[in-house]
Amino acid sequence: xxxxxxxxxxxxxxxxxxxxxxxxxxxxxxxxxxxxxxxxxxxxxxxxxxxxxxxxxxxxxxxxxxxxxxxxxxxxxxxxxxxxxxxxxxxxxxxxxxxxxxxxxxxxxxxxxxxxxxxxxxxxxxxxxxxxxxxxxxxxxxxxxxxxxxxxxxxxxxxxxxxxxxxxxxxxxxxxxxxxxxxxxxxxxxxxxxxxxxxxxxxxxxxxxxxxxxxxxxxxxxxxxxxxxxxxxxxxxxxxxxxxxxxxxxxxxxxxxxxxxxxxxxxxxxxxxxxxxxxxxxxxxxxxxxxxxxxxxxxxxxxxxxxxxxxxxxxxxxxxxxxxxxxxxxxxxxxxxxxxxxxxxxxxxxxxxxxxxxxxxxxxxxxxxxxxxxxxxxxxxxxxxxxxxxxxxxxxxxxxxxxxxxxxxxxxxxxxxxxxxxxxxxxxxxxxx
Length: 433
Ligand code: UD1
Known about the structure:
- There is one protein chain.
- The chain contains 14 helices and 23 strands.
- By secondary structure, the chain is an alpha+beta fold.
- The chain has two domains: 2-19 and 235-432, UDP-n-acetylglucosamine1-carboxyvinyl-transferase, Chain (Alpha-beta prism); 22-232, UDP-n-acetylglucosamine1-carboxyvinyl-transferase, Chain (Alpha-beta prism).
- Helix 6 runs parallel beside helix 7 (194-205).
- The longest helix is centred in the middle third of the chain and has 13 residues, at 237-249.
């Protein structure tokens, strides 16, 4: 087992490179099931989740080869496998995206239901509604979604808005199915996250006909076949946001190279409201905080893109714990996504959770403690808080962090953070009843 140990109090300075987007490469890999011929994918972040998706594709008859650290070669070599093993879906929800692709290319699929996770219940009703509208016969049996399209899938008008707004996952699954379906599909209330656009651009390059990329109305004209391509994945906006917050929380000077300001509007706007001095260029964003800079508390609400991303909520909370005044954070997408609150309070933060709100009473002083990472973004938030907590912070359960951040501690160390990864025995883990 590994832990991160941070000695807080260092002001971060320098430039750091952001990796490729985890949430873009995962649907792109699912999309590889649709094509004939080899695809080369570049700027692939070398992450646990990506490796899990690679293993899942291998089980489904896809040859997946890493060429160096950030480049993958992917080619379907056997297209009669239709069962996604529980082993992989259990580890990562995104593997559920093979459902739409298998159904479109192989006419049937059996994919385990992903179940809930610490950030909430996370149903898949919208995914199934969309696929059913395209002619799929779907039943849920023994924990598996068993889907068939004996006549092939056909186009349909599909509304994918749910109680919590648009759904990234449902949009991806329906898009993957629609590109090879007969006729025209229109997705209304499609998710507009840059990662969905990246998948659509990837499919378009493969020969798919998609109009309205980047908008909530996607119009897809099904084609007979798709071919392999050479593709470069977009940079990870959530990692970029995390690194910028690392700069701001330590009142440092940090430039994030390859960050796309156009993907970060809500984050940058929140920084401006807080009073974080910012600069942005074509492919970079930087924060410059002197000792004298004064930050203000703010209220934020998470929303689907282009709103404030739920995936940066925990990290922004860490920053707000160090800003005088009361900030209110409302989680509109995953109302239970506040597992990090109790752990931040262990570092001395003053946060109260009330239903889908967290009320943060900000102050400058946090002090180091042993804390537990509960999910991917909560782990990043604990790292950020550890960077400013006085003394030593020890973060357990960091396997969550490795799912979505490529060598975060190395990047932070290069900016001057005092952060180490340590191997520890099982007995040092905090036991919870
Ligand atoms: C994706 C992201 C995740 C991010 C989330 C919201 C990946 C691998 N994961 O997750 O990092 O936090 O988008 O930006 O890209 N919902 C339903 N029914 C459905 C599907 C979703 O009610 O069939 C609800 C969810 O419970 C949630 C909301 O819709 O409240 C948004 O979820 P969704 O956008 O689908 O999230 P994911 O695709 O799971």
